# Entry
Amino acid sequence: MSGEAKLIIQDLCHHYPDEYTGESVHALEGINLQVYENEFVAIVGPSGCGKTTLLNIVAGLLPYREGRAMVDGNEIHGPGPDRGVVFQEHAILPWRSVARNIGHGLELQRVPKEETRRRVQEYIDLVGLSGFEDRYPHELSGGMKQRVAVARTLCADPVIMLMDEPFAAVDAQTRITLQDELNRIVMATRKTILFITHSVEEAAFLGDRCIVFSRRPGQIKTEIKIDIPREERVWKDMADNPKFTEARDKILRLVRQEVTSDDEH
Amino acid sequence: MTSIDLQQARLFKWKKFATEGAGRLIIFLVGSIILWALISEFLIARPDRYLPSPLAVLLSSADMLNKGSLLSFYSDTLTRLVIGGAVGIVIGIPIGLLLGLNRFVADMFYPLMNFFQSVSGIAIFPVVVIWFGNSDTTVLIVILYTSFFPIAFNVLSGVRSVPVRYIQAARTLGASRLQVVRDVLLPGAMPSIAVGTRLSIGFAWRAVIAGEMLAGRPGLGNMIFSGQEFDNTAQIILGMVMIGITWIVLDHFLLRPLESDTIERWGLVSR
# Structure
């Protein structure tokens, strides 16, 4: 992959005390990962493998002690607008209209009103929410809320967009639509993205590179390059795309190994 | 939306509030007044002492209006209520916020607040009289004291009930701690702030009436109290009716529109 590394993670390990028993849980072990400019990296792994822990560390929501994590050459200490996060659900603010949610990041950075208005409109159009500017989140469907969340993150123009199973809570039909749309948005914005999912299909469909995690303690098991041009990534064509089916089956086998070996314990 | 559109929308909302359910309210009011008149006329042996008719209450109010005492009592009481209640709420919100934000501060002051919350305004009344005499200051202090706790406790629990996800989302958009308070915690605590404000004003009402009775300051409370002394039951009922109507007007034209513009619009509560 050409371009410079936007996210660099070196020898990252993480332990945390279990909420109830107090025992130390070994969540991540020896993670080395780089995400390059304009790259879409999908992390897939069995549930509880530490992939969300990794995302929270990169987001700055979780402090870490062992190893290093850097964005754009800066060591990560706490959250910041250079790393936007799209959470699974329930993260846009109910007391802000669609437009005010999307413009929140710019408002916090004290960007002039006129420029904010213009950029907000641009992203509203991009995610297909024109006409809903003045609606409040409780008036929107689950899929529309996630569109707002994506637009809000993009509008703040982060160095890297972190997505934590953003489509896991919507119904299957909406999910397919949102995945197609995200592809279109990625093409339009060329954003650098780190995407967490437990869905093998989603990872194979969206990722330029797919990182398979082992079960806990989470380690990088393999990485798979998915060499399908973005323009060809449309769900209706995917069933006939040998590159996609091959990658999906390979990832599925690797993830299944982790789940099955877990069952034997 | 242009500002003219916005003004029209506000005007429309105002009209809707002014007329919403007005028909049912009028039927209910007229019905209860007729029932009251019938009971007073046919069931009570000495209505002037035990339950004066609506007409007698009306005449008593006309009489007091003529003398000028009714409006002066009313404005005295309302002024105390507004000043004492407003100061109590204005102090209560930031203190509740501070306690909700900081565990350390909360652990220090929560037990103290809990202690005084159980000691009602009436219970501290005698000691305030010893300090400040039977004065307006005394009544105001008791109102302030009484209205402080409901709002402070509600803001505290409101701030704590804001989902962590919202705070994290704002932080990853680059919000400072102060911006998190302004953009996330305060609006997120609005349902509790609304409940607390209602309770505080309700408590302040009770405190102002009781305070006037005990301190003998002129006002609606004192008017009710002296009504008993002089066997003027119509005057007592007049006082009660004025308190009730004031609350309904306050609620309908101030608190409800405020709630419908915020927490109901945001879908945080439904009616």
